[in-house]
Amino acid sequence: MVLSIHEGDHHFTGSVSIAGDFAAAAGSITNTMVEAEAGLEVSKLDHRIVQTYAQEAECSVVDAYRVVHIARAAGVISGFKVFTDGIATGSSKIEIDVLKADGAAGAFASTLTAVYEVSSADLALTVLDAITNVSPSTYVANAVFAVKVDVSVLGGTVPTGLVVQLTFDEEAS
User: Fold this and answer.
1) Domain total for the chain?
2) Alpha-carbon span 18 to 20, nearest angstrom
3) Are residues 100 and 71 in contact, defined by beta-carbon separation less than 8 angstroms?
4) pLDDT by residue (tens digit) across 126-151?
5) Does residue 81 lie within any of the structural domains?
6) What is the domain range of residue 93?
7) Whose CB has fewer CB within 10 Å in the chain, the N or C terminal residue?
8) Residue 145: which H helix or E strand, with range?
């Protein structure tokens, strides 16, 4: 077949059908061009999953270890936020770790560069963005994630009402 080249802008008032392959330049079809009613299958979309681990509001934070997510597909941790409704006083603090195990018989290991600490230096009722502590942030399908909380009562009081929010962006499965 002979290649036909048309230069310049073109406007069509009727339908356009393509009998062969259609190749759009990378980045030429943007999010705003896809209609909300397009009916794309879930298997063709990346997925954002937000998981929250919370302890009782206005109650002292206690040691905890809780599984919060099992990945359906490979992905990346794109958000890690911490909130307390009451802050520590004195030298007391809490340490939060996000642990991950990859696949069968995989041991849990931290996904953080260092445990995230909430102490009297932080403000109550303030969302603390801890995403810079996450490394590595990527994971494989069937990775299991847990939140571990360690309380240190070193004089004063520990924070109250802990909430940990993790955001996972997973590939289409």
Assistant:
1) 1
2) 6
3) no
4) 999 999 999 989 999 999 999 999 99
5) yes
6) 46-170
7) N
8) strand 144-152
